[in-house]
């Protein structure tokens, strides 16, 4: 039985009482999405922080209750008591200890969400009581502005309803796809790390523009606005990237010459190697 359901509408069921262990970069993005007034969720959301200073940031809010481990050694266990949805937003090497710490304080039927890379759901399930579901999620940093991409995968103890609950959770910060757990490392390689690849492209294009002779500020403006505009065009047009590229690439034109050089550099193989290296590291983390 799920606990403490929020008010619901026929279109969008509410999220239950929610606790978050750790409010770092990704946890903060998720919390920001959950705090949107349009989100139907049982309030307040209870979060734990390491320091009293971090908890004090929420002192004047009515929708978040923050408890500092610095002040209360029982903070994590207190936070999850009565929660139907528990988000573990701690570093991967701390996750199993955090799960073990809260295990006996969890409500029967609670859903525990891990956003950590390299920690299989089976390892989390092993330290939690029977009747508690585990769902893994792999969000990315654009979640901070509500434009995130998250892949989620249910563990062995998660039902379809549990996965659906977590899907609705992450829809508060962007788009969501449901995958098998054996695909979660691939999600991390494509979208979890994907923003870094885009930023690297921007870095290299700016550097190349500077080598052409543009001032640094001009180079940044040229490249940043080009990337932002291209992304907006892709979203608003509804066309896929290949067609949009063809739209810009006139036969025997200048763009075609640049594309020929880029493709001659072996981009397909380069991207395959990059994603494979990312997935390999995730598997190494799982084995540690």
TrEMBL record:
One of its GO terms (biological process) is L-proline biosynthetic process. Its EC number is 1.5.1.2. It comes from the Bacteria. InterPro entries: 6-PGluconate_DH-like_C_sf, NAD(P)-bd_dom_sf, P5C_Rdtase_cat_N, P5CR-like_CS, P5CR_dimer, Pyrroline-COOH_reductase. NADPH binds at residue 76. The lineage of its organism: Bacteria, Bacillati, Actinomycetota, Actinomycetes, Micrococcales. It catalyses: L-proline + NAD(+) = (S)-1-pyrroline-5-carboxylate + NADH + 2 H(+); L-proline + NADP(+) = (S)-1-pyrroline-5-carboxylate + NADPH + 2 H(+). The gene is proC. Catalyzes the reduction of 1-pyrroline-5-carboxylate (PCA) to L-proline. This is Pyrroline-5-carboxylate reductase. It comes from Leucobacter luti. Keywords: Amino-acid biosynthesis, Cytoplasm, NADP, Oxidoreductase, Proline biosynthesis. It is an enzyme of class 1 (oxidoreductase).
């Amino acid at each position: 039985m799920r606990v403490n359901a929020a008010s619901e509408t026929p279109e969008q069921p509410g999220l239950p009482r929610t606790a978050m262990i750790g409010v770092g970069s990704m946890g903060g993005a998720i919390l920001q999405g959950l705090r949107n007034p349009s989100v139907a969720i049982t309030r307040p959301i209870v979060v734990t922080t390491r320091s009293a200073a971090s908890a004090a940031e929420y002192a004047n809010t009515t929708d978040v209750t923050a408890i500092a481990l610095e002040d209360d050694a029982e903070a994590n266990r207190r936070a999850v008591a009565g929660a139907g949805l528990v988000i573990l937003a701690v570093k991967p090497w701390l996750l199993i200890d955090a799960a073990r710490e809260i295990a006996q304080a969890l409500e029967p039927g609670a859903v525990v969400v891990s956003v950590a890379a390299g920690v299989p759901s089976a390892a989390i399930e092993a330290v939690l009581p029977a009747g508690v579901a585990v769902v893994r999620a792999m969000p990315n940093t654009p979640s901070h502005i509500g434009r995130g991409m998250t892949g989620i995968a249910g563990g062995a103890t998660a039902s379809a309803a549990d996965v659906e609950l977590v899907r609705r959770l992450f829809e508060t910060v962007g788009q969501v796809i449901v995958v098998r757990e054996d695909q979660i490392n691939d999600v991390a390689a494509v979208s979890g790390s994907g923003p870094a690849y885009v930023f690297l492209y921007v870095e290299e294009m700016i550097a190349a523009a500077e080598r052409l002779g543009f001032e640094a500020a001009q180079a940044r403006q040229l490249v940043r606005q080009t990337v932002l505009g291209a992304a907006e065009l892709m979203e608003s047009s509804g066309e896929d990237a290949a067609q949009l590229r063809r739209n810009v690439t006139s036969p025997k034109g200048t763009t075609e010459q640049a594309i020929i050089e880029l493709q001659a550099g072996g981009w397909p193989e380069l991207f395959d190697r990059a994603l494979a290296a990312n997935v390999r590291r995730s598997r190494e983390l799982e084995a540690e």
